[in-house]
Amino acid sequence: MQWSRGIGLTLAGAVLAGLVALSWLGEGRARGAPIRIAFAGPTSGPSAEDGLSAVRAIEQVFDRVNAGGGVGGRPVVLDVYDDRNDPEQARANAPIIAAESNTVAVIGHNFTTCSIAAGEIYAERGIPAIAAAATSVDVTRENPWYFRTIYNDLAQGRFIAAYLGRVLGARRVGIVHETGAYGAYLARVMREWAPEAGVSVAGSWSFDPADSRLAARLDKIAREAMAPAAPAVLVLAMQPDAGVMLVKQLRDRGFPGTLVATDALASQAFANGFRVFPAERSRPGFYTDGIFASTPFLFDTGGKRAGAFLREYVARYDRSPDWYAAFAADAATVVVEAMRRAGVSPRADSITDDRAALRDGLAAIGPVHPVEGVTGPIGFDAVGDAEKPVPMGRFLGGEIVSAFVQLQLLPGGRQPGDLDATHDPARVIALGDRVLYRTDVARVGVRARHFEDLDFSAGTFDIEFDLWFRHQGDRGVEDVAFTNAAEPVDLGEPVDEVVKGALQYRLYRVRGVFLADTIDTDYGEHSLALSFRPRERTRDDLILAADSVGMNLGRQRTRSERAARGRHLLRAKGWSVDDLIFFRSNVDEPTLGHPGYLTGLPRRFSQLTIGVSLRRQALSLRGLLPERYQPVLLAVGLLGSVALLLVRSAGSPRLRWLLQAVFGLLVLIVAEPVLGNWLQRSAAPYQVAKLSRAFDVLWWVFPAMLVNVAIDRFVWKPAEASSGRPVPTLLRYSVASVVYVLAFFGVVAFVYDYRLTGLLATSGVLAMVVGLAVQLNITNIFAGVALNLERPFRVGDWIMIHGRTPDPEHGVIGMVVDINWRTTRLRTADDTEIVIPNGAISEKTITNFMSPGEMSRFELFFSVDQSVPPETVIPVIQGALASVTGAEKGGPLADPAPTTRIHRATENGVEYVVRYRLVPREVSPHKARHTINEAVIRSLREAGIELAIPRRRIREEHPPAPVA
């Protein structure tokens, strides 16, 4: 009952620790009543994945915020409301959201119609909302409670018009749009702005997406678009379902022109819609390749923050984020930052005032002091819209990548006259009150061929790799500088080159020494990366983007897929690729006193980094458990270990050992990444390396300790229980020493990477020197090992150590108390302890009085004069023996009785032998010998019998008489 109570308390404590830690993890380190944020969007229905990706991204942001203390010490919690992209459902959900006393803001909705329907109620109830996907200008116009992190349709429509005329060179275009608010508004904006871009709208088709004869209507549009007089460029402003139907009909008819889509088709839902068709399954991109699409965001040209967000999202959810996730994450970031800047900490009794204060805080986030997000800086204008560029993507291989030419918004409201010498006036495009700059995009790919001298302690690696550029135009695109090169790198001449019209491709074989660990990674990981930027062309002029299609990266939907692609690109022997890393960042170049750059803004370049995170290839439990649960498991392991110490005497030893092993290993597995990730954020690299080295040692020491405890509890303790005798200390120490010596050699060989052959050679020489100095002790040690192996006696045995003959007079008699690595301890009958070196014992004869049984036979000899007949002597001796039998008298055993026999006749007399038996642990042989001698001598003397006296014959010889 006692053991079950103790173990039960232990397990209950561990479970309690898990619940407490789980609560701590769920709410972060923040405390207090939660601040609630609502998400409103589709989490079911055809567009469910769009809404769910947004929910995941918001939770990712909130978890990071809560881990840092929350907002005002309070955790931020997300509540999800499914509107299925239905305006009526959105309108029904809005009052419920506004009625929640702790809900301070709303992120959503995805569709413009849903945002407008619910926005009226949000404004009426005074709760701020942020749209992350709805692009209609009507969402924020005349609604001061609505904000938007994405561009609006006015900016998108003007951008597409400019791109058609200034980049694609189109003069006549057609527009196909849905009659809903989204498509109709975009079509109107493009028609208004097309003339300014030098484009005329030569054809316009509309359709009702709810029309029961939608397929027939789209078929008619496709036939008319194929007419000879029809424009060669078609703009598609519609939702994915209709877009899939129309594009398939155009492609099946062999439409020869160019298709340009609005952002609704720049989604995976649109690309996935073709996968049901055999032609698309046999060749991904059969229907979509070549389609231009204005897209809110592209990760291949995203910055460092975008790359970090992508890697964390994939690691957390094992799938890739889309642009919905990126803008939802930015909306969550903006809400949190606005609360912090405005000092808002909502309470139920003041929720109305707190919501108003948050709205004012959002309005105060402008372009001058923006919030840095995944998609770039976020600052709201007077109507609550964020001024965002409109990236142009192009479908390739079923995926959407950056087009070779982008139109960028010049920062800070700069006008053409404000540009410095780094900008080309021919690239400037004025479009109303906006100034755009034509920026080239070069797709760059890398694949390693050979690694040498991979040395993370020195922080360098030598690599030979293929580097290729695919781009339009040829003005310094391939003139790049490697920013993490340890020495200058020269591309040399291309080993392959293809020029097809404006498209150019060049492949270089490059070799150089580069700096390792230039990318922040998780604890226990290293990174190999190549970072490069144009030497002369600034970020406004040229962007380097990872060639995801050329490197066969695809979307890397899971972490394992990303790691597999990473192994395909950068592979090092002895290391496993944990994740693929690529991102674009802006780097400033010092002017170095150049007169042309002293008065302007810093020269900012687009730097591309392509790399991998590595872990050493080894069988290891490190990092086996998911990172988000590691604090929970650490708390369980620590509290379980403490509970076992508090109930030390309870429970089965074997069960206790099992629980100790489980809790100890759990702590060892999760403590290192938890401490390592914390230390990596706040300490120098050498301190992180020390922590790693310390845990490397612990991974050898702790199992050695477990093995020794297991041997004690599963071997020694059962052996002692069955035999009733303690296991010799020498044996215990010898086995423990072997285990720890093996652990020591493991630490030396695998932790400190020292060759054991050299260590063993050095140890041999040292052992020889030490052996000569302590050879006597070594003799004793090996003699002790031999004694434990042969086991001539055990602890508790009475033994006599003597010469060749078992003579108690000249031997040492005592009970064995201990046999250790050097000596054997005996306790004599008078409680005196004798310590004898094992080497001395090995050279003597040992009589074990208790083997094979505890009873031992002894002999004493008496000589009596020959004149006394034996029939007189023997009864006297037997009577003397009978008078002292029994342990209480210190004499021999009464059963079997002592005996007296004639041993032999000598010239001195007749020798009698007395044979008797003892149990040495009851009567010592010395004491019994004394008792018997005293009794026999006394009895003989009383009987008038004298002991024989040695006789000597003396003969006198006279010398012979002299001869006369």
Report on this model:
Strands 7-6-8-9-10-13-14 form a seven-stranded mixed beta sheet, sandwiched between helices. Strands 15, 16, 17, 18, 20, 21 and 23 form a seven-stranded mixed beta sheet that branches. It is built from 23 helices and 33 strands. With 964 residues, it is of the alpha/beta class. The protein has five domains: 208 residues, Response regulator (Rossmann fold); 131 residues, Response regulator (Rossmann fold, 3-Layer(aba) Sandwich), CATH 3.40.50.2300; 213 residues, Acetylcholine Binding Protein, Chain: A (Distorted Sandwich), CATH 2.70.170.10; 71 residues, SH3 type barrels, CATH 2.30.30.60; 87 residues, Alpha-Beta Plaits (2-Layer Sandwich), CATH 3.30.70.100. The termini are far apart. A hairpin with a 2-residue loop joins strand 20 and strand 21. 39% of the residues lie in helices and 24% in strands.
Strand fraction equals 15-25%
Oligomer: single chain
- Classification by helices and strands: alpha/beta
Name of the level-1 CATH class of the largest domain: Mainly Beta
Count of β-strands: 33
Q: What number of domains?
A: 5
Annotation field: number of helices: 23
Order of the strands making up the biggest sheet: 7-6-8-9-10-13-14
Q: Label the overall shape.
A: elongated
